[in-house]
């Protein structure tokens, strides 16, 4: 059974011996969880990459808020699934200056994406409304406003995030007893889990 955010917060409260949330409130622990997600995204952006179908219309598409970075448009989503190649806007404008006004088609040949307009993707030829293309994106991290919401991080990394939340919790009272050492140990475990997983992934990767 997947570890939910609410369960993670309860587990942390039990470990810091504050199950009634006198010292660490649940909203405060949720803030720590959001910080854990953001830190994870900075250290392991590769774990937020996934394939996503985009439903497009016309020659211009605006990426959804849950997409942080467009990495590629790979193919059409129809039965033929023909490859879509990237081209430069200036090339298309020079060779086919009126391409934006062309009749919409059910299959896309090229896409254009400029990092200066990161949320905009252009398609040639213009697409019939509802045309589906396959993309590779890095998902955005969304701060949770309620602990009943689903996290942005893949389920298998929830235990790592728990260690980060414990690091933040113990850091609150770092001047007392061994809390500073406890905080440091949980931060080390968080980084170790991310590092061990990354090392294992690299070891299993095929040689180029």
UniProtKB/TrEMBL annotation:
UniProt source species: Comamonas sediminis
InterPro entries documented for this protein: SU10_adaptor
UniProt superkingdom: Bacteria
Phylogenetic lineage: Bacteria, Pseudomonadati, Pseudomonadota, Betaproteobacteria, Burkholderiales
Protein name, entry field: DUF6682 family protein
